[in-house]
# Entry
Amino acid sequence: MTTYIGTATSRVDGRAKVTGAAKYASEFNTAGLAHASVVTSTIAKGRIARIDASEALSVAGVFDVLTHQNRPPMATEDSAYKDEVAPEGSPYRPLFDDKILFSGQPVALVVAAESEIARFAASLVRVEYDKEPYVTDLYHQRDKAVALKPAENPFAPPKPRGTAEQVFAAAAVRHRGEYYVPIEHHNPMELFASTVIFEADGKLTIYDKTQGVQNVQRYVCNVLDMDSDDVRVMSPFMGGGFGSGLRPQYNVLLAALAARALKRSVQLVLTRQQMYVLGYRPAMIHQIELGANARGTLDAITHEAITVTSQYEDFHRQETGWSGLLYKSAHAKYTHKLARLDLATPSDMRAPSAAPGVYALESAMDELAAALKLDPLEFRLRCYSERDQHSDRQYSSKSLRECYRQGAEAFGWDKRTPEPRSMRDGTELVGWGMATGIWEALQVPIAVRIVLTANGHAEVSCATSDIGTGTYTIMAQVAADMLGLPLENVTIKLGDSTLPQSPVEGGSWIAASVSNGIVTTAGAICTELLRLAKQMPNSPLAAATPDEVALADGKLVNKRDASRAVSIADAMRHGGLDRTEQEKTTTFDDDGSHAHNTHSAVFAEVKVDEQLGVIRVTRVVSAVAAGRILNTKTARSQILGGVVWGIGMALHEETLVDHQFGRIMNANIAEYHVPVNADVHEIDVIFVDEPDDIVNPLGIKGLGEIGIVGVAAAIANAIYHATGKRVRDLPITLDKLMPATS
Ligand code: MOS
# Structure
């Protein structure tokens, strides 16, 4: 009985968003709100020798300048700073002491009556440093990178199988390649911001830009030694997160510190430049070896990744594991090394590990297909794996073959001529490339509360976030269907730490988790209404069990005989209730018998100006298998966004570090290039049917991440097909291409 699930329902928060009624963290205000501005370090490593804030303090309207010397007390032990998704190590503690760990680190906070005054005064704070030697160049550190031990943590490389190195050495057709992915930054539309309301009783109400209000709430309580009831964190709307808001950002702690120091409300908004510090996709080097036999199937895969982390935390994801998972190969071996640099700790960024790891794998697969003289799609079909290659488990569902078929057909792949430089359009070389995408179908324990009133209105609440993906909307759709109500009778509350428990919104796990959470709680509502209905005289549901009834059209109905029904209003009135409330936690007990993944097949067309090397991505077809699609409109937007980001990853995005100063050079969206409208042409999104009654009751797999995976490789492969030139370091800028096209 679904009316809304699976449809192209427009965003329930759409009007609020376009009219400005949906407020971001920096748009909340209160009487007497003070504004803060951060002073950041100009060196990459060392100590603060002296801070002179006297000139800043003399500016009219400046209330105070906080430094590590005069800030209020904060926790000293590492554990207090460990948030829900912190990696191994000692988290960075803002304004804690005189140590400088990376360039751009906050060293002082100016608090003033106006943000312009704070920012001006911040420019007057004089800081002297004792510098120490530092290193920010991955290539400089690659030989010192340290290998992770297998199974050291959940993100360590999977166990090897067979004898990949020996089999590769003896393989009939071999490819070995090294691929580079630079540091990339998230660049969400909304800046990091926190508005901390200092309540009369000293409690803090914090509007923060975050993907996890409860994660931030616990962090602030732990670090400032405050009671759980004294800190409330809210994030009703977000202008994009992409992973940058998974961990608490330093602005929230500094604004809270300042509010406590001054006993007044404080707002801190970071500048775009200041966003280029905490959290980024780490630079990484991938070395891949693929060995095939003369029949054109894979025998051996080795994948080594060297990824960047900071000096104080061990951030990494399982960058190598995708390789041996995706394709059938009897032998596979993985190595993951961490290279420490004097930069801030990297973070998750859309499809962490898969976007860069699969770029490397799918580039290598294309190169091996060329060596085998096989069509790249045909090669992948020959290596198709029906089972999870790591654990030899069956999939709960896997419609990748159908993605290949429908994607190829929509793209017209069969008209491709195999030789590089064999297709043209006037002065442009035309290239067609393809790649596979893969991500996990994750789900997390989550609690949902539903309050249903006798007049048929429901309020559904959960502390999850809507990072812009459409969580409000899919929650409303699922609740409306499960409660048998019109969509407009459902109100969604989220992004508030006082609501029922939710982990951070990330990893593409929230849609599946919260939707099935709504199913559980709606089931409890149904059971409660049945209890009331049974007590009615001559109840038509007297003999019904909870399994036999459902809510539809404002009534509790027998699923096999719709004529036996009791209206919600009658059941409640009879029980003397005007509302019923249920809160349930849903856990996803996995018996481990099945693997759960999402997949995609990405086909890209590029046109490359033969004289100038200018690349245009003129067409992309992305065929996605991600279980049940809750909302075809918001889902398509997710994939479109992922494809656009994949274009950026392939052609534009690169955070450049000046290793002389250990400092990011292009910390702004003028010089950090992202795709603009002129870079984005035709994008066709196909959702392949993928029923799955094993993964979870609603068969949802999530799709925040899968859209970007494979796109950069498909474009890189298309560029090779167009030009005959293989560029193995991203982004593929025209200077790297010019020699081959001239
Ligand atoms: Mo996504 S990188 O889990 O926000």
